[in-house]
Amino acid sequence: MFILKIPTAKVFEPLLAPARYKGVYGGRGSGKSHFFGELLVETCQAERGTLAVCIREAQRTLAQSSKRLIESKIASLGVGSGFKLYSDKIEAPGDGLVIFRGLQDHTAESIKSLEGFRIAWIDEAQTLSARSLALLRPTIRANNSELGASWNPRRKSDAIDDFLRARKPPGAIVISANWRDNPWFPAVLEEERRADLSLYADRYDHIWEGDYVRAFEGAYFAEMLSQARAQGRIGKVSADPLLPLRAFINIGGSGATADAFTIWIVQWVGTEIRVRDYYEAVGLVLAFHVNWLRSRGYRLFEPKSCWAWPNTLYWRKCIK
User: Fold this and answer.
1) Which DSSP string do the residues of the chain spell out, in sequence order?
2) Does residue 221 lie within any of the structural domains?
3) How confident is the model over 240-265, as pLDDT tens digits?
């Protein structure tokens, strides 16, 4: 009996269970692609005749595909005798097959060539278009078929992020994995990570922590926010019902070309300033902004206490 032993990081353990959709999102060095590559080879070895496709949005040449990674996993796992490597495909045990495709140029007709494939793995899935995802999902429909995706998030509006994280199809297994979850995180990447943290604080969280790309990259406060995150000063806080809330307002104007009208709801708790709520709108009249405050349960009041600042509007939130 042949026993295949594959050391696996604990963070990926939920993905070993069967599921129609499997997703891993996170930053560099987490081992996302390596996990899916090993899982694909394991499946082809254990289930003879498996048909699998490795997908990217754009793939002009096989050099842009996951083929080299799959080949390296076949070699490192010691199962090379069961696979045959060709320039454009990999034959797996029991007439199985692994192919590599870019979906950008596929049509509703041409993608039918993937019918019958049981495994689909989308690498760099943040670049997958909504059109490609809509074409792929009903095409991979064999019994017990699985669609896996690995990606470093860019925006909430990206097709894969919207589908697997926002809409969350029933039964999907989606996890977050970053460099600290990788027990084999190499020293050279640790040096790169520290360099980015020191030199490019405004983009560090996206590259290494799997956060969305920030619109304010390069802004003067980006480094301060990154430092606050690293120091554990960003998180969920609770309101003190005995202390007042203050509404800080940036009046951007009410015209269509005006700047954003923003409101921060904050509370002083000891030496901390806790941001409790935030609002932003453009081109709306003042009454609309006031209605937002009221809809959130905030009520204007004038305190008589000695701590009240002069010429300051205070808002109270009534909690039932």
Assistant:
1) ---------GGGGGGGS--SEEEEE--TTS-HHHHHHHHHHHHHHHSTT-EEEEEES--SSGGGSSHHHHHHHHHHTT-GGG-EE-SS-EEETTTEEEEEEESTT--TTGGGGGTT--EEEESSGGG--HHHHHHHHHH--STT-EEEEEE----TTSHHHIIIIII--TT-EEEE--GGG-TT--HHHHHHHHHHHHH-HHHHHHHHH-PPPPTTTT-TTHHHHHHHHHTT--S-----TTS-EEEEEE---SSTTSPPEEEEEEEEETTEEEEEEEEEESS--HHHHHHHHHHTTEEEE---STTPPTT--EEEE---
2) yes
3) 888 888 888 888 776 666 777 889 88
Each residue of 23-76: pLDDT tens digit?
Answer: 999 999 999 999 999 999 999 999 999 999 999 998 877 777 899 999 999 999
Angle in degrees, 0-180, between the axes of helices 32-46 and 67-76, rounded to the nearest 10: 60
Domain that residue 250 falls in:
245-317
What does the radius of gyration of the chain's CA atoms come to, in whole angstroms?
Answer: 26
Q: Are residues 52 and 135 in the same domain?
A: yes
The sign of the CA dihedral 138, 32, 172, 42 is: positive
CB 64 within 8 A of CB 217: no
Task: Tell me the whole-structure pTM to 2 decimals.
Answer: 0.69
Same domain, 199 and 289: no
If asked whether residues 128 and 209 sit together in one domain, one would say: no
Amino acid code (one letter) for 166: A
